[in-house]
Amino acid sequence: MSNILQLFTDDGPGAKTRDTEPMAVTFQAWWAAYPRKCAKKAAERAWSRMPEAHRRAACDALPVHVEHWRARYGEERSFIPHPATWLNGERWDDELDPIVKPAAAEPRSAPGLAWWMDDGLMEAKGRDVGAGPARPGETRDQYRGRIAQLIARGNGRAA
Fold first, then answer.
1. Tens digits of per-residue pLDDT, 106-133?
2. With helix as H, strand as E and coil as C, how does the chain read?
3. Whether pTM exceeds 0.85
4. Measured between alpha carbons, how far is 133 from 99 in angstroms, rounded to an integer?
5. What are phi and psi of 19, to 5 degrees?
6. Does residue 33 contact residue 66 with C-beta atoms inside 8 Å?
7. How many of the other CB atoms lie within 10 Å of CB of 59?
């Protein structure tokens, strides 16, 4: 009888310590950290189909992605993938593009340098006319075209 009791107590010979057995990663913990809260049921279904190794990888990568999204989009959440999309696409493995900071004041004052000639100036112009930053997967030419359309409609300032 004492052998059976030892199996179910922390100080028995077969007891595992918390350091050797990793804690299970829960959907609730991941959901709490994910910045875009939509379609929770779909995200939970995607989570339930994932192997534990993928769950751990998703949780390990999430802080880096959240920081990237904050730096790139600020408080704008519409450019962040839906949670289920991020999980189903194994987006934690995605290579994140470097963040392009707006150019310093010197290039802006340089004569002849148009907003479409520099990534930083283009992003600043996009923000000025209400286009926001480039969307994920959007090419430089597509982004420039979107900004130009807003300017042509009169929604933005003159080029």
1. 444 445 567 777 788 888 888 888 888 8
2. CHHHHHHCCCCCCCCCCCCCCCCCCCHHHHHHHCCCCCCHHHHHHHHHHCCHHHHHHHHHHHHHHHHHHHHHHCCCCCCCCCHHHHHHCCHHHCCCCCCCCCCCHHHHHCCCCCHHHCHHHHHHHHHHHCCCCCCCCCCHHHHHHHHHHHHHHCCCCCC
3. no
4. 11
5. -75, -30
6. yes
7. 15
Q: Which amino acid is at 110?
A: A
Closest CA to 130 of 152, 108, 154, 147: 147
Chain centre distance of CA 59: 12
The average pLDDT across 137-145 equals: 87
